[in-house]
Structure formats: C-alpha cells, structure tokens
UniProtKB/TrEMBL annotation:
Secretion signal, residue range per the UniProt entry: none
Record protein name field: FAD-binding oxidoreductase
Domain FAD-binding PCMH-type: from-to ranges: 36-215
Source species of the chain: Luteimonas salinisoli
Annotated family: Belongs to the FAD-binding oxidoreductase/transferase type 4 family.
Molecular-function GO terms, alphabetical: FAD binding; oxidoreductase activity
Domain of life the protein comes from: Bacteria
Keywords: FAD, Flavoprotein, Oxidoreductase
InterPro entries reported in the protein's UniProt record: FAD-bd_oxidored_4_C, FAD-bd_PCMH, FAD-bd_PCMH-like_sf, FAD-bd_PCMH_sub1, FAD-bd_PCMH_sub2, FAD-linked_Oxase-like_C, FAD-oxidored/transferase_4, Oxid_FAD_bind_N
Needed cofactors: FAD
Pfam families xrefs: FAD-oxidase_C, FAD_binding_4
Length: 461
C-alpha cells in the first residue's frame, strides 16, 4: 500500500529520489546523539534548488514537518526526525559550482563534505581554514547551519567568518540570495548571518560562497603533558605570547585512555593528568627556536612535565589523532555531551568551578573533558555505565546540566559553543539568551517559516 502523502510528494516534485526502507529511515533519521528513536515519514534527496523549493511548498500545503539533513555528525539532536517528519537530505547536492580567483571564493552546494572543500581550495593553491575531526563526513550545509568551529578557531574564527554569501530556501519556499559574496554591504539586515547557526529552523541552505585564504605556513605540532588543570591557562598564555598559534587543544587522561583503547599510540612512557596538542607557525629557524623557548620556560616552572615534538607530517597526524579520536572512541558509551563556552578571560575561574561541580555531581561516572581552550570552548562527555538505565542516566545528566547552565550564566557563557541547541539543550537556552532575545528569535522564525514546517521542536518549541 502506498502512502498518500508520498504519492502527493512524488506528484509535486517529479523525479525526486525517495527512500523508505526501514534501514534508511533509521540511518537518515538521527545524528550522533543516538538518544531518540528515528521515525521519519521518508527520506527525500533533492537534486537541485528547484526540487528543494517544491518540497518546502508541498510541506506547507500538507502541513508536514521537514528536517534538513547533512552529514548528521551533530551532537545536539538537531538532525533527529522522531515524529513522522520528512527528512530532506542534501547529499546529492554536493558539487563545486565555481571558483573565483580574484575574489578568492569557492561556491559549493550544501551536501559537499568539508574535506572535499579543503581539497578543492588546495587545487587552486588556497585554503578553506575551518577544520575539525569530522571533516570527511560532515557537510558544508550542516557546518553553516551550526556555525561550526573546530580546532583552528583560535587562528581563523568560526564558519561565520568564512561565508561570503548564501542561498536559502525559506520555510515558505522562497529563494533568498544573501549578500552575494560582497565584502561591504551596508544595505539593511544581513540575513546571511541569521541563517548561519539557525539549525535549519529558518530554511534550507542550498548554496554557499566560501572565502578562501593563503595556506597556513609550515607548522610545528607538539604534545605537552601537564600536571594539573590549574596550569592549563598559564601554558596557553605563555605560548600565545611567544608564538603564532594555529591551534591549542587540551584533553584529560581519561580522553587519552579511551583513544589508546581504541587503537591509538602513546608517545609517553608515563601517564599524566592533562595534555595539550598545540600547533604554531614554524616556517624558519627563529620561529622554531621560539617554540623550544616557550616549552623550556614552561618546563622550568613545572607547568609542563613532558613533551613530544612531531618530526614529520605523519607524526603530527598521530599526535592530532590523540585529540580528534576522542569522539569516535567514546561513541559506544552513548555519552551525554555538554559543549560550553566562556570568555577566555573568565576561563580560569570557570574551569575550577566547573571541575568542582562535575566531580561532585558525577562521582560514579566517567567524565571525559577536552576542548578548544584558546577560544574558551570546553567539551564535557559523560559516559553512560552499562548498568545504568537510559532514563536514569538522562535524568541525572539533565539535572547537572541545569546546574552547569546556572554556572555559565553567572560567567556570561553559552550552553552551546559550536554544536547548536537542537533537542538536547533547548531547555537551557534561557541561560544563554534573555527572554527578550528569545522572543525576537521566535518572531524571526515566524517571518521566514510562517507555518512552522522547518525543523520544529529544535532550538525552542
């Protein structure tokens, strides 16, 4: 028996690829959170902008909710379809549409993987500098929709800084051409920046014009072993003062433990409480000497207990895998994830208070910390024990997240640094945004999605 909704969709969008097999519904109906049972109506895979518009107009006419879908590497439930929504996967729209050598820009479709963008930029002798561990599977549309950050924000900023223009199909089915790649454009509201980070609640990104830059200069990658949380920011301050940092990432012994158990290699003979993966410009002997001087200065103060210096690109990749491999290594535990940020100046006090809060709140749970210390972003993964029921685990984590949200509010921080709000964090949005801001956000959403078909239930109800 055919579904009348899907029959109507096929008539409204001739030639549309649809998936309805149970395995496909499960695969496309969830992201990395794994906390909700996928239950989408079907999976639509449009080939072009016209089909996306036709899908959105059909959804408005039928009152069917849509969930935009990219690589589904999100960690906040933003791409979950658990209530009969139609998933709109952009994976067939994955082309490079154009390169402009004068503007140094690359125009792409939303389904293209971040890694493919890196390769396309490199083919022209340039770089797209946004980068993170999921580069091979995440999509540019998803990156834009969550304003993704990653490991090089300290040097290059978030996705927002590298989007020169967007095309957006709104919740009403209209196609908006936002900013058109202009460097200067003081002609009213910049709707491009509303779409960036909107988690698909205002429309579907169907094209992005990305800024490119010069490739980063040769870099030195080091792994540092630290004795305590307290010295983390001291080491960062010393390295930032002496070096041109490209990245400064930290992880705990628990994070390293899980990566090693997953197949990584430990460059140290001993086990230390905290680690930093740092990368800095090392194009000449002077910059290389400055790196060694920074290491020695911190070691003399007892802030660094041991260090490993990559002697090749392969060794640098091995050191980076110790940090980037954490998410994959702990995935089997279905971790509850907190992704928070504060101003860098507030980081020392917040770190101490957050560590105390979580140590008291989770005495029996394995808590894995890592993050982008150089831009004030911490990732906190609480691993679910095998003998603790889902409901009990989620209830305790939700209660503690409320306490953490209160701490963030006191420090002027954010409950979501780079993963979005989605389903996971919407109850805590008010800790980051005022009631007036949320009311304004709701009004913007109504203006661009008057019938509420775009990713309903995400960000706020």
């Amino acid at each position: 028996m055919t579904d009348p909704h899907l029959d109507a969709l096929r008539q409204a969008v001739p030639g549309l690829h649809l998936k309805t097999d149970p395995a496909d519904l499960e695969h496309y109906g969830r992201d990395w959170t794994r906390r909700w049972i996928p239950a989408p109506l079907a999976i639509a895979l449009p080939d072009d902008v016209a089909q996306v518009q036709a899908i959105v107009r059909w959804a408005n006419a039928r009152g069917t909710a849509l969930v935009p879908s990219g690589g589904r590497t999100g960690l906040s439930g933003g791409a979950v379809a658990a209530n009969g929504e139609l998933v709109v996967s952009l994976e067939r729209m994955h082309r490079v549409l154009g390169f402009d050598a004068v503007d140094r820009s690359l125009t792409v479709e939303p389904g293209i993987a971040l890694q493919a963008v890196h390769e396309a930029a490199a083919a022209h002798g340039l770089a797209y500098p946004v980068d993170f561990g999921a580069r091979g599977s995440c999509s540019i549309g998803g990156n834009v929709s969550t304003n993704a950050g990653g490991i090089r924000v300290i040097r290059y900023g978030n996705t927002r800084e590298w989007v020169a223009g967007l095309k957006l199909v709104t919740g009403a089915g209209d196609l908006l051409d936002l900013n058109r790649g202009l460097i200067k454009n003081s002609s009213g509201y910049d709707l491009r920046h509303l779409a960036i980070g909107a988690e698909g609640t205002l429309g579907i990104v169907v094209e992005a014009t990305l800024k490119l830059t010069e490739p980063a200069p040769p870099a030195q990658t080091v792994l540092l072993a630290l004795p305590s949380f307290d010295v983390l920011m001291r080491v960062f301050a010393e390295f930032r003062a002496r070096l041109r940092l490209q990245a400064f990432e930290f992880l705990t012994e628990r994070g390293l433990h899980h990566v090693l158990a997953h197949g990584g290699a430990n460059p140290f003979d001993a086990v230390y409480p905290y680690y930093v993966v740092a990368e800095f410009d090392a194009a000449d002997e002077a910059q290389q000497a400055a790196g060694l001087a920074a290491f020695e200065a911190c070691s003399e103060r007892g802030w660094i207990l041991d260090g490993a210096i990559a002697q090749s690109q392969e060794q640098a990749g091995q050191l980076w895998r110790l940090r980037e491999g954490i998410t994959e290594a702990v995935a089997r535990y279905r971790p509850y994830k907190n992704d928070v940020s504060v101003r860098i100046s507030a980081m020392p006090e917040f770190l101490a208070q957050a560590q105390a809060l979580l140590s008291e709140a989770y005495p029996q749970f394995d808590v894995v910390w890592f993050g982008h210390i150089g831009d004030g972003n911490l990732h906190i993964n609480v691993l679910q024990p095998d003998d603790v029921a889902d409901a009990d685990f989620m209830a305790q984590c939700g209660r503690v997240t409320g306490l953490l949200a209160g701490l963030l509010h006191r420090h002027g921080g954010s409950i979501s640094a780079e993963h979005g709000i989605g389903l996971v964090k919407k109850d805590h949005l008010q800790s980051t945004r005022s009631a007036e801001e949320i009311a304004a956000m709701r009004g913007i959403r109504r203006a661009l999605d008057p019938n509420g078909v775009m990713n309903p239930g995400k960000l706020f109800d």
